[in-house]
Design brief:
By secondary structure, the protein is mostly helical. Among the domains are: about 20-60; about 80-120. The protein has helices at about 20-35, 40-45, 50-60, 80-90, 95-105, 110-120, 135-140.
Amino acid sequence: MSQRSFGQEISGNRQPNAKLSSTQRAAIISKVEASVLYKDIAAEFQITTKSIQRTLKRWKTYQTLESLPRSGRPEVVSHREKRVLYRLARRKPKIQYGKLIEEAGLLHISKSTCYRRLKDEGLIKYRYKKRPKLTRGHALLRL
């Protein structure tokens, strides 16, 4: 039976390539400062020695135990633009995405971006089913 790593929940094993928690990183730094060998720390926490080196470098460079923000594409829609989309969609629930974008004045975004931003806000729009109009004669036949 293998020993669980420091700071890990008892219910399960640590996933491969999972992020280290800030308590685990603090323990790693304290063990390194106590002159424990990297291979012993790696065996205890079930990580590679490279992970220990990266943790130390992060600590020395940024003085933080938290994960650093990753680079990525900037958002196309700002917070204000999201709010405008949301308000218009709430005001006119049957409006089509193209017309919604035009009315909001956000011609730089696509229909799929509009859909995703509204979905993030909890507004899932859908097209109503086109049903044939029920005439009075049809209603009488059904009864």
